[in-house]
């Protein structure tokens, strides 16, 4: 898939910061689901208000659905048609609610994507 435009500024125009928009773009493109720790990993922070800010904002805008998965733990599902349209995927199946096994698989896909991004950044720094 090739886009004729950069979706990050489109997502920024909705009210997200550049790094929030970049992360949500990855989520929309590769899985549709994410964990708070995955966003923390993306921004290279373990805990803090930055992740909470993204979650609060996305929930308030109606872009995310929070799914309980145990003791005070949640999976976040990017469900907004507006968000998928903004990244060029208006008919994405990632918007649809999946079963537990499929959600786990999609979270693993996002972990893989984040791993690859870290390897790419580590390689580019060493050159």
Note the main sheet.
Answer: 3 strands, antiparallel
CATH topology: Arc Repressor Mutant, subunit A
Strand order of the largest sheet: 1-3-2
Proportion of residues in β-strands: 5-15%
Beginning-to-end CA distance, first to last residue: 29 Å
- How do the SSEs run, as a string of H and E? HHEHHEEHH
Quick rundown:
With 127 residues, the chain is mainly α. The protein has helices spanning 7-14, 18-30, 36-42, 49-60, 81-86, 100-126, and strands spanning 33-34, 64-68, 74-78.
3D structure, described in words:
The protein starts with 6 loop residues before the first helix and ends with a helix. The chain contains six helices and three strands. It is mainly alpha-helical. The chain has helices at residues 7-14, 18-30, 36-42, 49-60, 81-86, 100-126; strands spanning 33-34, 64-68, 74-78. The mean pLDDT is 87. Strand 2 and strand 3 (74-78) form a beta hairpin. Helix 1 (7-14) packs across helix 2. The relative contact order is 0.17. The radius of gyration is 14 Å and the shape is globular. It has one domain (7-126): Arc Repressor Mutant, subunit A, CATH 1.10.10. Helix content is 57%, strand content 9%. A three-stranded antiparallel sheet has the order 1-3-2.
């Amino acid at each position: 898939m090739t886009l004729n435009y950069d979706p990050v500024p489109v997502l920024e125009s909705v009210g997200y910061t550049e790094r929030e928009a970049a992360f949500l773009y990855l989520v929309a493109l590769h899985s549709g689901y994410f964990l708070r720790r995955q966003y923390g990993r993306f921004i290279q922070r373990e805990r803090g208000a930055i992740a909470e800010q993204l979650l609060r904002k996305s929930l308030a805008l109606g872009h995310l659905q929070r799914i309980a998965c145990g003791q005070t733990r949640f999976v976040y599902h990017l469900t907004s048609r507006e968000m998928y349209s903004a990244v060029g995927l208006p008919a994405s199946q990632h918007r649809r609610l999946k079963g537990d096994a499929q959600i786990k698989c999609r979270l693993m896909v996002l972990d893989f994507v984040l791993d690859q991004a870290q390897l790419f950044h580590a390689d580019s720094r060493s050159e």
